[in-house]
């Protein structure tokens, strides 16, 4: 194009600005023709007076914009710039200051009306370039612009080092107008996009559904994840697993978990599902199994023997199998089968099984593997492995690549290393393999070691400072990243707050615990009380369990070489004995708290062992014919918890030991036990105060049912002998008094029984048959032919049924003894406190040995301090010392006495349920499929929701730090995105470091609200004059930025003293200009 020699005027947008010249030259009835890369409503706002007066404005997008999108991955290099051009409609990256004034609603509304009346938009739909320019009539043409934005007008600064815009006049201008007209009228080159422009602008001032704004938040925060996600790590719906019976039986929260699990298995090769008790982990896992079976994969389920029937039912062609149509085909084996080389497990021949041919292993109650692998060497130098090593070597490392799904409501037991050992199963112990997949700066071992040290330091803080927030501030971002990558954990509270309970059904209402404090006996003259008996236990040496303590120092090495660490036992002989001695003292106390009968039986057993040792010493002294004492772990009851009986027998030569000193301690214990047995020899069931109070409780429950016609009572005890004692003394009484049937389940068929017998003989029912008769609805008895129609009304059980069982027909649970692990109490209650229960109310009754908890803790502490124990645990750092552990247990017991807590409430530290973010990622994956428009959502959108008692009136801001760095804010898990929740008066409800909590809050406020709340929107519009007066919310936005600055300064200082490196001086945030407002939610 030849230019005529007319005057050319230049604008540098500093000393002389384009906007000023346009204001002067755009006249009433002017006609404008603009070709530019993008259009901004803020440019309209700058020239509003002039643009409203024109007769016409024609606008050409110089590159394809607002055309039909093709968002395939091959097109991303074209798609992303186009998306940026389209989003410039609501303001460019250089118009942050204007966007953060939050007036775009009012501006966009006015702009849309102007466009409808006076503007035409077309877009270049070819790959050929069009030079940008502005033409006013045929008088002036402005060259050098890029877009129609405030940066190009000169009212906002851009990033150009220098910018010159030239104004052409007269004939030169006419040539550009002719060129514009020629292109404008070419339908092969241009496409009309006015309607699409209006549709986009209308979204800015339209009232938005809260759920949409929630999803806009998730999309922006997790956009990078969504863009990079591969179809290989998301459930492949083409497999048909979503048409399966099991999939369609899942609640929404279970479907979310199943999708998340599959994603984690595909990406990281492993996942831990740690949902709280009663949330249906088994059904969720079955859906995952079905997915892999649809892909022709081989699946193994490893479970405790007591849970075998739970799993075999779902894969057999049984009448009571609710998913029989799915024809699941997985194998079921027990944890203990890992140590067996031959024999049958069910119908599987362990001598022939190809352990290495499983593509997926599902481990139920995976916390049983949290102590990691141990190798022992016998006297002949032959190595043996524990179950963990067997699982790792035989199943996971051998053969095909094996994915590992672990199920446990309690994957961590006071040590972070518990989690690490379970995760090792997923990456075959080869840490580099998972380190490459995790988005972390440090390796897994370093991450867990740092986290453990941080936890140890936190646990030493004064109680009032030992808060979850304090711990979160000490833990490294990498630790959260690991948990988020490989775990899923939701609580009952999370489900209630985040999902539609109308679809799921209610949880039953928990009544306050009924606490009882019965004395040991009805006859006070017997002198049996807890204080006196504990005092006698304090006098015990229990040296019968520690003979090696009396071996001469010069001879000790011989026995250590033969039986201790040097023999590959993992711990010294004396150390193992001292640990056993301490644990036997503890178990004596536990049995005393359980029942006088259990304590008396144990005292008899120990007294017999002491008598045998004394007799052996006396024979040696008399005849020297007995060379030594054979010490055996046999005689210790199988349900003695935490005592390792795997080391077998060993013998000590009396010539190698100070047997006289040992004899004195044995004789002292003999006297104490003689007095204990004399006292308890006077006891009978008729004098058992605790038993009689239990009878009274059952009578009251039957006569005053919590729920109509529900007479069922579930009684838990830690000890099999207590369970059998209760059955023997309750069953006839309940049958004669109330016509009720009683059952007892101990995990051992020889001690399990019921008052219902098999037809035609006196045979007993097995474990699962007894549970089915107790809870016939939840166990689908009506579909079975071989189970009697009579109900067991009162079931007495040990903790063999405290996990993995659905007994929700029952509404009344009694803890006849308080388990020393308070978490077990919650697990017990989880048998009846389950989703979908038909009971409106449920009750927990607790029997305590002492009314004063401090006194009770002191009694147990005194006896423990008598025994100098050693740590029997394997590798790992203990989180809590003995004194702190007692205080920790006291706090847990106090909580149980006052309320019926959730499992996650029993933790005094960080809870993995509070940390995971992947559920949010997958939530928006599904949403984007049906709502692709979310990708072009404007910045600065808002929704209005109703406040609740725990979510006060205020505003939640979602922001993006424009100074994007690579995790430069180590404490903010969402970086570069920041969320802040301020109350109406500007107080912080939740700061940006509580990422999961804020997303949960926003989800609770917004999910399920697919249409705007008209009344609340009207109130907001009245308050802000339809978005024209946003001063209050602009002030709140500034306060939220200041909150981020204040919190970051504090955490930067604290980071100097934390593990994982300091953030001091990194990413210094200055103020509002460092942030882009993504969206906000007004809580009214």
What does this structure look like?
The chain is of the alpha/beta class and 1084 residues long. Helices cover 41% and strands 13% of the residues. The chain has an eight-stranded mixed beta sheet with strand order 1-7-6-5-2-3-4-8. Strand 31 (977-983) and strand 32 (988-990) form a beta hairpin. The longest helix has 28 residues, at 596-623.
Q: What integer value in Å does the Rg equal?
A: 37 Å
User: Spans of 5+ residues with little confidence (pLDDT < 50)?
Assistant: 70-78, 376-384, 633-648, 868-882, 1051-1066
Counted beta strands = 33
Computed structural class: alpha/beta
Envelope shape? elongated
Largest sheet: 8 strands, mixed
The overall average pLDDT, rounded, is 83
Instruction: For the largest sheet, list the strands in their spatial order.
Output: 1-7-6-5-2-3-4-8
Q: What is the share of helical residues? A: 40-55%
Distance between the termini: 61 Å
Q: How many helical stretches?
A: 37
Features:
alpha/beta; 8-stranded mixed beta sheet; 33 strands
How would you sum up this structure in a few lines?
This protein has 37 helices and 33 strands.
């Amino acid at each position: 194009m030849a230019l005529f020699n007319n005057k050319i005027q230049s604008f540098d947008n500093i000393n002389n600005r384009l906007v000023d010249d346009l204001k002067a030259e755009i006249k009433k009835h002017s006609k404008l023709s603009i070709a530019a890369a993008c259009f901004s409503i803020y440019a309209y706002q700058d020239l509003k007076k002039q643009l409203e007066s024109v007769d016409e404005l024609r606008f050409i997008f110089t590159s394809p914009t607002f055309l039909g999108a093709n968002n395939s991955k091959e097109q991303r290099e074209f798609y992303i710039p186009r998306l940026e051009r389209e989003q410039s409609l609501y303001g460019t990256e250089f118009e942050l200051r204007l966007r953060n004034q939050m007036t775009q609603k009012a501006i966009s509304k006015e702009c849309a009306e102007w466009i409808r009346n006076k503007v035409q938009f077309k877009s270049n739909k070819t790959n050929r370039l069009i030079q940008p320019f502005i033409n006013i009539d045929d008088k002036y043409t402005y060259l050098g612009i890029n877009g129609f934005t405030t940066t190009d007008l000169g009212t906002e600064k851009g990033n150009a080092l220098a910018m010159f815009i030239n104004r052409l006049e007269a004939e030169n201008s006419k040539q550009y107008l002719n060129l514009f007209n020629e292109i404008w009228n070419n339908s092969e080159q241009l496409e009309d996009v006015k309607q699409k422009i209006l549709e986009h602008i209308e979204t800015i001032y339209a009232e938005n559904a809260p759920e949409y704004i929630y999803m806009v938040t998730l999309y922006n925060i997790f956009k990078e994840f969504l863009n990079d996600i591969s179809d290989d790590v998301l459930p492949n719906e083409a497999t048909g697993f979503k048409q399966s019976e099991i999939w369609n039986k899942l609640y929404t929260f279970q479907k979310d978990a199943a999708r998340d699990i599959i994603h984690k298995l595909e990406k990281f090769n492993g996942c831990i599902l740690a949902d709280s008790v009663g949330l249906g982990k088994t059904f969720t896992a079955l859906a995952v199994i079905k997915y892999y079976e649809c892909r022709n994969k081989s699946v193994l389920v490893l479970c405790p023997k007591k849970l075998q029937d739970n799993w075999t039912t779902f894969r057999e062609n049984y009448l009571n199998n609710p998913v029989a149509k799915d024809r699941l085909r997985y194998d079921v084996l027990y944890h203990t089968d890992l140590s067996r080389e031959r024999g049958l497990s069910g119908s599987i021949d362990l001598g022939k099984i190809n352990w290495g041919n499983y593509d997926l292993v599902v481990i139920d109650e995976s916390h049983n593997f949290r102590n990691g692998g141990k190798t022992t060497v016998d006297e002949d130098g032959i190595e043996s492995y524990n179950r963990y090593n067997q699982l790792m070597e035989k199943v996971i490392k051998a053969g095909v690549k094996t994915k590992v799904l672990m199920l446990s409501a309690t994957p961590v037991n006071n040590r972070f290393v518990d989690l690490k050992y379970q995760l090792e199963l997923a990456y075959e112990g080869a840490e580099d393999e998972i380190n490459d997949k995790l988005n972390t700066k440090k390796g897994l071992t370093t991450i867990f070691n740092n986290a453990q040290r941080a936890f140890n330091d936190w646990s030493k803080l004064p109680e009032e400072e030992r808060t979850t927030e304090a711990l979160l501030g000490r833990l490294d971002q990498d630790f959260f990243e690991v948990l988020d990558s490989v775990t899923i954990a939701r609580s009952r509270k999370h489900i209630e707050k985040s999902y539609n309970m109308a679809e799921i059904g209610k949880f039953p209402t928990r009544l306050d615990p009924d606490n009882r404090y019965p004395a040991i006996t009805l006859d006070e003259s017997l002198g049996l009380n807890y204080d006196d008996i504990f005092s006698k236990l304090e006098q015990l040496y229990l040296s019968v369990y520690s003979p090696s303590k009396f071996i001469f120092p010069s001879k000790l090495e011989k026995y250590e070489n033969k039986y201790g660490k040097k023999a590959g036992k993992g711990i010294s002989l004396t150390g193992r004995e001292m640990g056993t001695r301490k644990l036997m003292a503890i178990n004596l106390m536990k049995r005393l708290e359980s029942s006088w009968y259990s304590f008396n039986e144990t005292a008899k057993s120990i007294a017999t062992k002491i008598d045998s040792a004394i007799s052996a010493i006396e024979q040696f002294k008399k005849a020297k014919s007995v060379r030594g004492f054979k010490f055996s772990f046999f005689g210790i009851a199988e349900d003695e918890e935490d005592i390792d009986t795997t080391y077998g027998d060993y013998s000590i030569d009396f010539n190698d030991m100070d047997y006289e000193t040992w004899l004195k301690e044995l004789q002292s214990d003999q006297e104490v036990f003689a007095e204990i047995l004399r006292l308890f020899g006077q006891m009978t069931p008729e004098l058992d105060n605790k038993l009689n109070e239990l009878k009274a409780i059952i009578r009251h429950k039957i006569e005053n049912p919590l729920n109509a016609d529900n007479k069922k009572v579930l009684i838990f005890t830690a000890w099999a002998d207590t369970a059998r004692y209760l059955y023997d003394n309750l069953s006839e009484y309940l049958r004669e008094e109330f016509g009720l049937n009683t059952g007892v389940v101990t995990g051992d068929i020889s001690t399990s029984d019921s008052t219902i017998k098999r037809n035609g003989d006196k045979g007993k029912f097995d474990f699962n048959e007894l549970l089915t008769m107790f809870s016939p609805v939840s166990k689908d008895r009506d579909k079975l032919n071989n189970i009697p129609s009579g109900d067991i009304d009162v079931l007495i059980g040990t903790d063999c049924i405290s996990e993995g069982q659905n007994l929700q027909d029952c509404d009344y649970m009694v803890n006849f003894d308080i388990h020393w692990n308070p978490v077990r109490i919650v697990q017990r209650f989880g048998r009846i406190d389950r989703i979908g229960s038909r009971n409106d109310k449920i009750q927990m009754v607790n029997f305590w040995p002492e009314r004063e908890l401090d006194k009770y803790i002191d009694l147990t502490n005194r006896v423990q301090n008598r025994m100098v124990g050693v740590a029997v645990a394997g590798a790992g750092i203990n989180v809590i010392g003995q004194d702190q552990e007692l205080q920790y247990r006291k706090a847990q017991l106090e909580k149980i006495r006052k309320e019926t807590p959730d499992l996650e409430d029993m933790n005094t530290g960080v809870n993995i349920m509070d940390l995971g973010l992947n559920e949010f990622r997958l939530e928006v994956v599904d949403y984007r499929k049906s709502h692709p428009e979310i990708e072009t959502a404007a910045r600065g959108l808002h929704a209005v929701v109703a406040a609740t008692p725990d979510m006060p009136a205020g505003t939640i801001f979602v922001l993006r730090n424009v100074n994007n760095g690579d995790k430069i804010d180590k404490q903010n898990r969402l970086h570069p995105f920041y969320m802040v929740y301020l109350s109406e008066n500007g107080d912080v409800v939740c700061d940006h470091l509580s990422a999961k909590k804020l997303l949960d809050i926003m989800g609770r406020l917004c999910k399920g609200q697919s249409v705007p709340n008209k009344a609340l929107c009207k109130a907001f519009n009245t308050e802000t004059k339809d978005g024209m007066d946003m001063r209050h919310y602009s002030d709140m936005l500034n306060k939220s930025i200041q909150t981020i600055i204040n919190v970051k300064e504090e955490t930067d200082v604290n980071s100097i003293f934390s593990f994982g490196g300091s953030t001091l001086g990194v990413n210094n945030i200055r103020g509002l200009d460092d942030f882009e407002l993504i969206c906000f939610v007004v809580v009214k």
